[in-house]
Amino acid sequence: DWTAANIADALIDQVSDQIGDGLAICGLSGGVDSAVAAALVQRAIGDRLTCVFVDHGLLRAGEREQVQHDFVGATGAKLVTVDAADTFLRELSGVSDPERKRKIIGREFIRSFEGAVSEVLGDHAEGGQQVDYLVQGTLYPDVVESGGGSGTANIKSHHNVGGLPEDLEFSLVEPLRLLFKDEVRAVGRELGLPEEIVARQPFPGPGLAIRIVGEVTAERLAMLRKADLIAREELSAAGLDSQIWQCPVVLLADVRSVGVQGDGRTYGHPIVLRPVSSEDAMTADWTRVPYEVLEIISTRITNEVPDVNRVVLDLTSKPPGTIEWE
Ligand code: XMP
Protein backbone atom coordinates (compact mmCIF):
# COMPACT_ATOMS: atom_id res chain seq x y z
CA ASP A 1 0.00 0.00 0.00
CA TRP A 2 1.56 3.27 -1.10
CA THR A 3 0.59 5.64 1.67
CA ALA A 4 2.98 8.19 3.05
CA ALA A 5 2.74 6.49 6.45
CA ASN A 6 3.77 3.11 5.03
CA ILE A 7 6.63 4.60 3.07
CA ALA A 8 7.85 6.48 6.12
CA ASP A 9 7.73 3.32 8.27
CA ALA A 10 9.56 1.27 5.68
CA LEU A 11 12.25 3.91 5.27
CA ILE A 12 12.74 4.25 9.02
CA ASP A 13 13.21 0.47 9.29
CA GLN A 14 15.64 0.50 6.41
CA VAL A 15 17.72 3.27 8.00
CA SER A 16 17.74 1.44 11.35
CA ASP A 17 19.05 -1.68 9.62
CA GLN A 18 21.71 0.23 7.73
CA ILE A 19 23.07 2.27 10.64
CA GLY A 20 22.62 -0.29 13.40
CA ASP A 21 24.05 1.29 16.55
CA GLY A 22 26.38 3.61 14.61
CA LEU A 23 26.50 7.42 14.53
CA ALA A 24 25.45 9.68 11.69
CA ILE A 25 25.65 13.31 10.64
CA CYS A 26 23.48 15.27 8.22
CA GLY A 27 23.95 18.69 6.66
CA LEU A 28 20.77 20.76 6.68
CA SER A 29 20.35 23.38 3.97
CA GLY A 30 16.93 24.69 4.94
CA GLY A 31 15.46 22.83 1.97
CA VAL A 32 12.85 20.08 1.89
CA ASP A 33 15.07 17.16 0.95
CA SER A 34 17.69 17.41 3.66
CA ALA A 35 14.99 18.16 6.25
CA VAL A 36 12.94 15.08 5.40
CA ALA A 37 16.00 12.85 5.17
CA ALA A 38 17.18 14.08 8.57
CA ALA A 39 13.71 13.64 10.10
CA LEU A 40 13.57 10.02 8.93
CA VAL A 41 17.01 9.23 10.29
CA GLN A 42 16.15 10.96 13.55
CA ARG A 43 13.15 8.66 13.91
CA ALA A 44 15.37 5.68 13.25
CA ILE A 45 18.38 6.43 15.47
CA GLY A 46 17.39 9.42 17.66
CA ASP A 47 20.29 11.28 19.22
CA ARG A 48 22.86 9.26 17.41
CA LEU A 49 22.17 11.64 14.53
CA THR A 50 23.75 15.10 14.63
CA CYS A 51 22.46 17.68 12.15
CA VAL A 52 24.84 20.39 10.97
CA PHE A 53 23.55 23.69 9.65
CA VAL A 54 26.05 26.08 8.08
CA ASP A 55 24.69 29.62 8.18
CA HIS A 56 26.65 31.24 5.36
CA GLY A 57 24.86 34.56 5.77
CA LEU A 58 23.35 34.26 2.29
CA LEU A 59 19.96 33.00 3.44
CA ARG A 60 16.63 34.73 3.19
CA ALA A 61 14.78 36.34 6.08
CA GLY A 62 13.59 33.76 8.60
CA GLU A 63 15.35 30.73 7.14
CA ARG A 64 17.81 30.24 9.93
CA GLU A 65 14.99 30.38 12.48
CA GLN A 66 13.04 27.88 10.42
CA VAL A 67 15.82 25.36 10.81
CA GLN A 68 16.68 26.18 14.42
CA HIS A 69 13.15 26.43 15.78
CA ASP A 70 10.65 24.85 13.42
CA PHE A 71 12.71 21.87 12.28
CA VAL A 72 14.17 21.16 15.70
CA GLY A 73 10.78 21.72 17.32
CA ALA A 74 9.08 19.27 15.01
CA THR A 75 11.72 16.55 15.12
CA GLY A 76 13.69 16.98 18.34
CA ALA A 77 16.84 16.51 16.30
CA LYS A 78 20.24 17.41 17.72
CA LEU A 79 21.51 20.45 15.82
CA VAL A 80 24.88 22.16 15.51
CA THR A 81 24.79 25.59 13.83
CA VAL A 82 27.95 27.01 12.32
CA ASP A 83 28.04 30.81 12.14
CA ALA A 84 30.09 31.37 9.05
CA ALA A 85 28.58 34.58 7.64
CA ASP A 86 31.69 36.69 8.28
CA THR A 87 33.99 34.21 6.64
CA PHE A 88 31.81 33.89 3.55
CA LEU A 89 31.51 37.67 3.18
CA ARG A 90 35.24 38.10 3.52
CA GLU A 91 35.96 35.43 0.92
CA LEU A 92 33.38 36.90 -1.46
CA SER A 93 34.60 40.46 -1.20
CA GLY A 94 35.55 41.96 -4.56
CA VAL A 95 34.03 39.03 -6.47
CA SER A 96 31.37 39.66 -9.13
CA ASP A 97 31.74 36.71 -11.47
CA PRO A 98 28.92 34.19 -10.86
CA GLU A 99 31.05 31.10 -11.33
CA ARG A 100 33.72 32.41 -8.97
CA LYS A 101 31.05 33.11 -6.40
CA ARG A 102 29.81 29.53 -6.68
CA LYS A 103 33.32 28.09 -6.38
CA ILE A 104 34.14 30.17 -3.31
CA ILE A 105 30.85 29.34 -1.64
CA GLY A 106 31.23 25.64 -2.41
CA ARG A 107 34.75 25.61 -1.01
CA GLU A 108 33.88 27.56 2.14
CA PHE A 109 30.80 25.46 2.71
CA ILE A 110 32.85 22.27 2.74
CA ARG A 111 35.40 23.87 5.06
CA SER A 112 32.73 24.94 7.53
CA PHE A 113 31.00 21.60 7.35
CA GLU A 114 34.24 19.73 7.92
CA GLY A 115 35.03 21.95 10.89
CA ALA A 116 31.70 21.10 12.46
CA VAL A 117 32.14 17.42 11.73
CA SER A 118 35.56 17.38 13.39
CA GLU A 119 33.93 18.84 16.48
CA VAL A 120 31.23 16.21 16.45
CA LEU A 121 33.89 13.55 15.91
CA GLY A 122 35.88 15.03 18.78
CA ASP A 123 32.86 14.85 21.06
CA HIS A 124 32.25 11.28 20.24
CA ALA A 125 35.89 10.27 20.22
CA GLU A 126 35.91 10.61 24.00
CA GLY A 127 33.17 8.04 24.13
CA GLY A 128 35.28 5.92 21.80
CA GLN A 129 32.87 5.89 18.88
CA GLN A 130 33.27 7.02 15.29
CA VAL A 131 30.80 8.80 13.05
CA ASP A 132 30.49 6.49 10.08
CA TYR A 133 27.42 7.67 8.26
CA LEU A 134 26.61 10.77 6.25
CA VAL A 135 22.93 11.38 5.53
CA GLN A 136 22.03 13.01 2.22
CA GLY A 137 18.70 14.07 0.77
CA THR A 138 19.35 12.63 -2.69
CA LEU A 139 16.13 12.10 -4.66
CA TYR A 140 15.41 9.72 -7.51
CA PRO A 141 15.78 12.41 -10.20
CA ASP A 142 19.23 13.29 -8.75
CA VAL A 143 20.25 9.65 -8.96
CA VAL A 144 19.12 9.42 -12.57
CA GLU A 145 20.72 12.74 -13.49
CA SER A 146 24.13 11.98 -12.06
CA GLY A 147 24.17 8.54 -13.63
CA GLY A 148 22.63 9.47 -16.95
CA GLY A 149 24.37 12.57 -18.22
CA SER A 150 21.44 14.57 -19.57
CA GLY A 151 23.57 16.73 -21.88
CA THR A 152 22.32 19.93 -20.26
CA ALA A 153 24.59 19.73 -17.25
CA ASN A 154 27.35 22.26 -16.60
CA ILE A 155 25.61 25.40 -17.79
CA LYS A 156 26.24 26.52 -14.24
CA SER A 157 28.76 24.85 -12.01
CA HIS A 158 28.23 23.48 -8.54
CA HIS A 159 24.50 23.17 -8.45
CA ASN A 160 24.46 21.68 -5.01
CA VAL A 161 26.28 23.29 -2.17
CA GLY A 162 25.79 20.29 0.08
CA GLY A 163 28.63 18.52 -1.74
CA LEU A 164 30.48 15.74 -0.06
CA PRO A 165 33.74 16.57 1.73
CA GLU A 166 36.21 14.52 -0.24
CA ASP A 167 38.68 13.43 2.38
CA LEU A 168 36.14 12.37 4.97
CA GLU A 169 35.17 8.77 4.69
CA PHE A 170 31.56 7.98 5.32
CA SER A 171 29.02 5.50 4.18
CA LEU A 172 26.14 7.36 2.60
CA VAL A 173 22.63 7.10 3.94
CA GLU A 174 20.19 8.23 1.27
CA PRO A 175 16.70 7.31 2.42
CA LEU A 176 14.97 9.33 -0.33
CA ARG A 177 16.79 7.90 -3.32
CA LEU A 178 13.75 6.16 -4.74
CA LEU A 179 11.33 9.02 -4.19
CA PHE A 180 10.09 11.94 -6.25
CA LYS A 181 9.66 15.40 -4.79
CA ASP A 182 5.92 15.17 -4.13
CA GLU A 183 6.45 11.85 -2.32
CA VAL A 184 9.17 13.46 -0.22
CA ARG A 185 6.76 16.22 0.74
CA ALA A 186 4.10 13.68 1.69
CA VAL A 187 6.57 11.78 3.87
CA GLY A 188 7.67 15.06 5.46
CA ARG A 189 4.06 15.89 6.37
CA GLU A 190 3.64 12.40 7.77
CA LEU A 191 6.64 13.03 10.02
CA GLY A 192 5.06 16.25 11.30
CA LEU A 193 7.33 18.76 9.58
CA PRO A 194 5.71 22.20 9.29
CA GLU A 195 4.22 23.29 5.98
CA GLU A 196 6.75 26.11 5.56
CA ILE A 197 9.47 23.51 5.29
CA VAL A 198 7.56 20.82 3.42
CA ALA A 199 6.05 23.13 0.78
CA ARG A 200 9.13 25.28 0.38
CA GLN A 201 9.93 26.40 -3.14
CA PRO A 202 13.41 25.65 -4.51
CA PHE A 203 16.17 28.00 -3.38
CA PRO A 204 19.74 27.72 -4.65
CA GLY A 205 22.52 26.56 -2.34
CA PRO A 206 24.65 29.69 -2.96
CA GLY A 207 21.62 31.65 -1.83
CA LEU A 208 21.29 35.40 -2.21
CA ALA A 209 24.90 35.67 -3.42
CA ILE A 210 23.84 34.70 -6.93
CA ARG A 211 20.89 37.10 -6.80
CA ILE A 212 23.08 40.15 -6.36
CA VAL A 213 24.41 41.01 -9.79
CA GLY A 214 27.73 42.48 -8.73
CA GLU A 215 29.79 42.18 -5.58
CA VAL A 216 28.15 40.73 -2.46
CA THR A 217 28.25 43.02 0.57
CA ALA A 218 26.43 43.00 3.88
CA GLU A 219 24.49 46.12 2.92
CA ARG A 220 23.36 44.70 -0.41
CA LEU A 221 22.35 41.44 1.26
CA ALA A 222 20.20 43.39 3.70
CA MET A 223 18.47 45.26 0.85
CA LEU A 224 17.80 42.12 -1.13
CA ARG A 225 16.58 40.24 1.94
CA LYS A 226 13.98 42.93 2.55
CA ALA A 227 12.79 43.04 -1.05
CA ASP A 228 12.64 39.23 -1.21
CA LEU A 229 10.58 39.04 1.96
CA ILE A 230 8.08 41.57 0.62
CA ALA A 231 7.70 39.66 -2.65
CA ARG A 232 7.24 36.35 -0.82
CA GLU A 233 4.72 37.82 1.60
CA GLU A 234 2.58 39.36 -1.14
CA LEU A 235 2.70 36.38 -3.51
CA SER A 236 1.64 34.10 -0.65
CA ALA A 237 -1.07 36.50 0.49
CA ALA A 238 -2.44 36.51 -3.06
CA GLY A 239 -2.61 32.72 -3.00
CA LEU A 240 -0.10 32.30 -5.82
CA ASP A 241 2.38 29.91 -4.19
CA SER A 242 1.07 26.83 -5.94
CA GLN A 243 1.20 28.50 -9.39
CA ILE A 244 4.74 29.71 -8.94
CA TRP A 245 7.65 27.32 -9.03
CA GLN A 246 9.92 29.94 -7.51
CA CYS A 247 10.37 33.68 -7.72
CA PRO A 248 13.95 34.87 -7.62
CA VAL A 249 14.20 38.49 -6.52
CA VAL A 250 17.36 40.02 -7.94
CA LEU A 251 19.30 43.14 -6.99
CA LEU A 252 21.09 44.87 -9.86
CA ALA A 253 23.75 46.25 -7.58
CA ASP A 254 25.92 47.77 -10.29
CA VAL A 255 23.03 49.56 -12.00
CA ARG A 256 21.58 52.87 -10.87
CA SER A 257 18.80 54.89 -12.39
CA VAL A 258 17.31 58.28 -11.71
CA GLY A 259 14.08 58.52 -9.82
CA VAL A 260 12.02 60.98 -7.84
CA GLN A 261 10.71 60.44 -4.35
CA GLY A 262 9.17 63.05 -2.07
CA ASP A 263 10.65 66.24 -3.42
CA GLY A 264 14.03 64.87 -4.19
CA ARG A 265 15.89 63.21 -7.00
CA THR A 266 17.04 59.67 -6.24
CA TYR A 267 19.74 57.59 -7.85
CA GLY A 268 19.02 54.05 -6.75
CA HIS A 269 19.10 50.40 -7.75
CA PRO A 270 16.52 48.30 -9.59
CA ILE A 271 15.03 45.13 -8.15
CA VAL A 272 14.00 42.43 -10.63
CA LEU A 273 11.07 40.09 -10.00
CA ARG A 274 11.47 36.74 -11.73
CA PRO A 275 8.36 34.63 -11.03
CA VAL A 276 8.43 31.39 -13.05
CA SER A 277 6.18 28.41 -13.55
CA SER A 278 7.86 25.07 -14.19
CA GLU A 279 7.64 21.31 -13.73
CA ASP A 280 11.28 20.51 -13.15
CA ALA A 281 13.33 23.73 -13.59
CA MET A 282 14.75 22.44 -16.89
CA THR A 283 12.33 24.68 -18.77
CA ALA A 284 10.19 27.45 -17.35
CA ASP A 285 7.65 30.05 -18.37
CA TRP A 286 7.29 33.47 -16.77
CA THR A 287 4.26 33.50 -14.51
CA ARG A 288 1.39 35.85 -15.33
CA VAL A 289 1.12 37.42 -11.90
CA PRO A 290 -1.96 39.70 -11.71
CA TYR A 291 -1.17 43.39 -12.11
CA GLU A 292 -2.76 44.24 -8.76
CA VAL A 293 -0.33 41.93 -6.97
CA LEU A 294 2.64 43.31 -8.89
CA GLU A 295 1.53 46.80 -8.00
CA ILE A 296 1.48 46.05 -4.28
CA ILE A 297 4.91 44.44 -4.43
CA SER A 298 6.39 47.32 -6.42
CA THR A 299 4.94 49.98 -4.13
CA ARG A 300 6.06 48.22 -1.00
CA ILE A 301 9.59 47.55 -2.23
CA THR A 302 10.20 51.13 -3.37
CA ASN A 303 8.71 52.48 -0.13
CA GLU A 304 10.34 50.06 2.28
CA VAL A 305 13.75 49.24 0.83
CA PRO A 306 16.19 52.13 1.05
CA ASP A 307 18.16 52.83 -2.12
CA VAL A 308 15.79 50.90 -4.39
CA ASN A 309 13.82 53.22 -6.68
CA ARG A 310 12.58 50.87 -9.40
CA VAL A 311 11.00 47.41 -9.65
CA VAL A 312 11.08 45.57 -12.97
CA LEU A 313 9.52 42.32 -14.13
CA ASP A 314 11.42 39.63 -16.02
CA LEU A 315 9.31 38.35 -18.96
CA THR A 316 11.75 35.75 -20.25
CA SER A 317 11.06 32.04 -20.51
CA LYS A 318 13.72 29.37 -20.00
CA PRO A 319 15.18 28.97 -22.54
CA PRO A 320 16.55 31.43 -23.47
CA GLY A 321 16.85 32.85 -19.92
CA THR A 322 17.87 30.71 -16.99
CA ILE A 323 15.72 30.94 -13.86
CA GLU A 324 18.45 32.64 -11.83
CA TRP A 325 20.21 35.70 -13.19
CA GLU A 326 23.61 34.24 -12.36
P1 XMP B 1 18.79 27.92 -13.62
O1 XMP B 1 19.15 29.30 -13.17
O2 XMP B 1 19.97 27.11 -14.06
O3 XMP B 1 18.20 27.19 -12.31
O4 XMP B 1 17.68 27.91 -14.64
C1 XMP B 1 17.57 25.94 -12.33
C2 XMP B 1 17.24 25.59 -10.89
O5 XMP B 1 18.44 25.38 -10.15
C3 XMP B 1 18.54 26.32 -9.11
N1 XMP B 1 19.96 26.72 -9.05
C4 XMP B 1 20.83 26.28 -8.14
N2 XMP B 1 20.66 25.46 -7.09
N3 XMP B 1 22.96 25.72 -6.56
C5 XMP B 1 21.74 25.20 -6.29
O6 XMP B 1 21.61 24.47 -5.30
C6 XMP B 1 23.21 26.55 -7.61
O7 XMP B 1 24.33 26.99 -7.83
C7 XMP B 1 22.07 26.84 -8.44
N4 XMP B 1 21.91 27.60 -9.55
C8 XMP B 1 20.61 27.51 -9.91
C9 XMP B 1 17.60 27.44 -9.44
O8 XMP B 1 17.16 28.12 -8.28
C10 XMP B 1 16.50 26.70 -10.16
O9 XMP B 1 15.61 26.08 -9.23
Task: Describe the 3D structure.
The chain is an alpha/beta fold. The chain has 2 domains: 4-198, Rossmann fold, CATH 3.40.50; 217-313, GMP Synthetase, Chain A, domain 3. It contains 10 helices and 12 strands. The chain has helices spanning 4-19, 32-45, 63-75, 85-92, 98-126, 140-148, 181-190, 195-198, 218-237, 291-304, and strands spanning 23-28, 49-55, 78-83, 131-135, 171-173, 212-213, 249-252, 257-261, 264-273, 276-277, 285-286, 308-313. Helix 1 (4-19) crosses helix 2 and helix 9 (218-237) packs antiparallel against helix 10 (291-304). The relative contact order is 0.13. It binds xanthosine-5'-monophosphate. Residues 102, 155-156, 158-161, 202, 204-206, 246, 281, 318, 322-324 line the site of xanthosine-5'-monophosphate.
Structural class: alpha/beta
Overall mean pLDDT stands at 92
Parts with pLDDT < 50 across at least 5 consecutive residues: 148-154
Spatial separation of the terminal alpha carbons = 43 Å
DSSP strand count:
12
- Which hetero ligands occur in this complex? xanthosine-5'-monophosphate
Main sheet record: 5 strands, parallel
Q: What name does CATH use for the topology of the largest domain?
A: Rossmann fold
